[in-house]
Amino acid sequence: MDDVEDTSTRYDSRPAGRESVRSDPTRGELRIHLGAAPGVGKTYAALCEARRRHARGTDVVVGLVETHGRARTAELLEGLEVLPRRTVVHRGTALTELDVDAVLARAPEVVVVDELAHSNAPGSVHARRYEDVEQLLAAGIDVISTVNVQHLESLHDVVERITGTRQQETVPDAVVRAAEQVELVDITPEALRRRLAHGNVYPAERIDASLAHYFRPGNLIALRELALLWVADQVDVALRRYRADEHIDEVWEARERVVVAVTGGPESLTVLRRAARIARRAGSADLLCVQVLRGDGVATRDTGRGRDLRRLAKEVGASFHTVVGDDVAAALLDFARGANATQLVLGTSRRSRLARLADPGIGSRAVAGSGSIDVHLVPHVEAPAGGGTPADGGWWPRLARLLRGRRAARGWPAAVVLPLLACGFGWSFPLVGLSTDTVAFFLATVITAIIGGLVPAIVAALFAGALLNYFFTPPLHSFTIARFEDLVAATTMLVIAVLVAAVVDRADRRAAQAAQARAEATLLTTFARVVISRSDPLPRLLERVREAFGFDSVAVLERGPKSSWTVSARMPAVLPGDDPDHGAGDDRDAGDPADADADVEIDEGSHLVGRGRTLTAAENRLFATVAGPALLALRNRRISAEAVDAARRAEASGLRTALLSAVGHDLRTPLSAIKAAVSSLRDPDLALDPADAEELLATVEESGDRLVALVDNLLDSSRLATGAVTPHRTTVGVAEIVDAAVAALPTAEVRDRVEIAPPVPGESDEVVADPGLAERIVANLVDNAVRHGGGGPVSLRTSAHADRVELRVVDRGPGMARDAELFTAFQHLGDHDSHGAPGGLGLGLHVARGFARAMGGTLDPEETPGGGLTMVLSLPRADVPPPARPVVARAGGDGAGRNSTGVMA
């Protein structure tokens, strides 16, 4: 948008070495130059990029560029093909906009379209310029565009608070995030103010006001920080996705992230505050607070301060996480590597050297396995003096975890029983030599190592050596080792036990890791299949996630107005204690994602949370990968909602168009008749006898009645569409409804053509209905049959069937075609306007069917045997309880008791 100087710096949002991958190869690429404020050089940079591509032989055109009178920017247009703009006249003013049709007809490889957030002039095909760009991308044309950070939808309110200026034009963040490249055009506030003062941004009359208000140094610094952080966040998201796709576990120090381990004990608040200071000194690094629970899900220390911990974590800007792991150091390092953390902060205890020899502690083990992660050990006055590390709970829990487990439970009996069996074998066969006895004890030790692991194998080796030495090596019945070869045998037995146990343990771990990897791959494949195979995959995906991780509930939370969180989707939809009238999509405050047992960010402003259990570190890492399928499912739902909304708007637009067409067809005739009759009556030069005057007045009255009927049907159709019809149901006889409807017909001639068949003897004709609505339905059906029945009689017949009473309105007219749309609004059967399009309001049958459904009834057409049309009105019988069925229509309003005759199709 202005000339660029050597002070400008550009950043690319893609991770290094990672090219953009498009799901649709026929779709064009979008490249956006993002600036912190007007004047940083976005348009200049975009045109420089266009000239570079043009010099390489690329077919580049300029669709629309605003130079704002800047000479150096205009110079860059020389040599480039500039397409003519489209002129739109609005309120007498000629406005120029991007000519999308001209660009599509020219079909270049690349087009430059400036100011992505611009609002098009009224009357344009698209309301916003980014929608024009979307059409060009869909046609396979690459687009180079520009946008300022204040125009981003998520930041425009922040910019308003900083600058005091409200932005009228915004662009959704998703549009910018979807770009293949986002290049930040950066310049220092001092250089930008100098550029403004030199007249390179605004005309001279606007310079002083701009420098004193929007372009104040503080404003520009804040805007620059917003732009840098926004691009940094997008780069971070791209980097996380790349690491997940490539299965990279080692830490890349691309951005400082500090993980602090807390226990819930009194020292936790001190460690968390110290970690917050470390994060601030690192340049506003991300701070993650993690609490490790033992495998049984019980906190290793008193958790009474858990609420204070969460509150403090929120105050210092840290996200709170909980993971489960028997080995605290391994769980912390696993979590830190999964978060790509660069620093780990731990509380350290004050213990003696002897205690550290017995158990080096969580800090030492974390340092040993940290690799490239910096580990900070924070001493504090609350640390225990000799009980072990705060996060680990001392040496006894470690020993207890070592002695328990599935393999150890099998190994301890083997460590005792197998050496005794070997000893019994030697006693049972006294002629067997010492070498055979030694082999038997070796075998017992190896089997124990395979079954029970390291510690039971060592115990078995020591026990077997003692038995061999006591019972089978001279001097017998003594633990004295007289020969060197006996010492070698006992030592070898111990070494073999350790080696075999180590090999078995390693193989067991590898097998467990392979099984876990297969399970994770299967789970992710299942999630992907759900997303691909369903039109709205989000509920099913949440159900699968809930089952896979054992949560009580899983939900997608989205940030609403005033930074509150609302439930976008949840499984199960209704939890115990919820209002049954509300489901997963209500607008109630859902709390904070940080309060959930598991939380992962799907995209900006959306989180996937699980409640009911705490995940292990490995499960937490797997849960984070669900964000990808969840993002696709959420976007699918948003696109579906947008498609439904677009279809609804298209339908409404079609109805409005049809209504405008119908108004000229159905309303013009009675209005013309009224005007002609009134003009004749008021003409002083026209002598009318009383009979002619009476006829003209009758014409006015008849046309007025017709207009009233048309307006009534329009209002009724609108009320039906908005659910504003409430039937007042009562028990009433069909004969009463028919008599009232026939009596309301306009003339005696019409009434004489109606034949009412007597009721079937022994059958009740009482129904549950709104008398007023039912009367209007019958009157309209009869009027429709009289007008379209070919001049013949109209028969009304009543019959009962099961739990329904059916009223048939039968005529002997021409009937209807099989594909006739009798109940379509704004269309008369066989009626067309002067242009050949279906004409007339045609609302009568549409309204009649709506009234019937509102009362729990139906209205359907049938062919009359021998020719003609039969309309069947079916209503619930009063003397038969209806079967359970879903509500056909719900409405509220004032529609009962009206008795006017509608105009039918």
Note the topology.
Layout: E1 9-12, E2 30-35, H1 42-55, E3 60-64, H2 71-75, E4 81-82, E5 86-90, E6 93-97, H3 100-106, E7 110-113, H4 129-138, E8 142-148, H5 156-163, H6 173-177, E9 181-186, H7 189-197, H8 204-212, H9 217-246, E10 257-262, H10 268-281, E11 286-293, H11 306-315, E12 318-324, H12 328-338, E13 343-348, H13 353-358, H14 361-369, E14 374-379, H15 395-403, H16 406-428, H17 434-452, H18 454-471, H19 484-533, H20 538-549, E15 553-559, E16 565-571, E17 598-603, E18 606-611, E19 615-616, H21 617-625, H22 627-682, H23 690-721, E20 730-733, H24 734-743, H25 748-752, E21 754-756, E22 766-769, H26 771-788, E23 794-801, E24 804-810, H27 844-854, E25 858-863, E26 869-876
Parallel strand pairs: 2-8, 2-9, 3-4, 3-7, 7-8, 10-11, 10-13, 11-12, 12-19, 13-14, 21-23
Antiparallel strand pairs: 1-9, 5-6, 15-16, 15-18, 17-18, 20-22, 23-24, 24-26, 25-26
Helix pairs in contact: 10-11, 12-14, 12-21, 16-17, 16-18, 17-18, 17-19, 18-19, 19-20, 19-22, 22-23, 23-27, 24-26, 26-27
Computed CA radius of gyration, to the nearest angstrom: 41 Å
Mean pLDDT, to the nearest integer, reads 75
**Residue ranges: pLDDT <50 for 5 or more in a row?**
1-22, 296-304, 383-399, 580-589, 828-841, 884-905
Structural class: alpha/beta
How many strands, what sense, and barrel or not for the largest sheet?
7 strands, mixed
Strand order of the largest sheet: 1-9-2-8-7-3-4
Query: Could you say which overall geometry the principal axes of the C-alpha atoms support?
Result: flat
Approximate strand percentage: 15-25%
What is the helical fraction, as a range of percent? 40-55%
Tally the beta strands.
26
- How large is the count of helical segments? 27
Distance between the termini: 59 Å
